[in-house]
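To illustrate the input format used throughout this study, we show a single complete record. The first block contains the structure-token representation of the backbone; no residue identities are included at this stage. The design step must infer an amino acid for every position from geometry alone.
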């Protein structure tokens, strides 16, 4: 499902205009990105957590040049679903 399809579904279920839903969805994504870039985690009860995961410094190999590369410590965005969310997916009959 694409973002446009999500917006359409929300608009149909709530009766809110597509333009308003689009602005709300875009604002949500912007808040998530900006907050995580500032080092904040976001917790949505019953859905999950958007967290920054720390990756340790490591040595990797450049196979084509046969050299070692140092990858510095860094953070990556991650999503951890809540137990309620996981149980709903596990109990779903439609997933193959």
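Output of the design step:
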């Amino acid at each position: 499902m694409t973002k446009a399809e999500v917006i359409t579904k929300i608009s149909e279920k709530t009766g809110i205009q597509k333009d308003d839903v689009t602005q709300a969805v875009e604002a949500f994504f912007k808040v998530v990105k900006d907050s995580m870039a500032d080092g904040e985690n976001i917790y949505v009860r019953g859905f999950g957590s958007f967290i920054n995961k720390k990756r340790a410094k490591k040595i990797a190999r450049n196979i084509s040049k046969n050299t070692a590369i140092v990858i510095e410590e860094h953070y990556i965005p991650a999503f951890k679903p809540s137990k309620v969310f996981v149980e709903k997916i596990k109990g779903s009959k439609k997933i193959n």
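Structural context for interpreting the output: Residues 46-96 form one domain. The first helix runs from residue 3 to 14.
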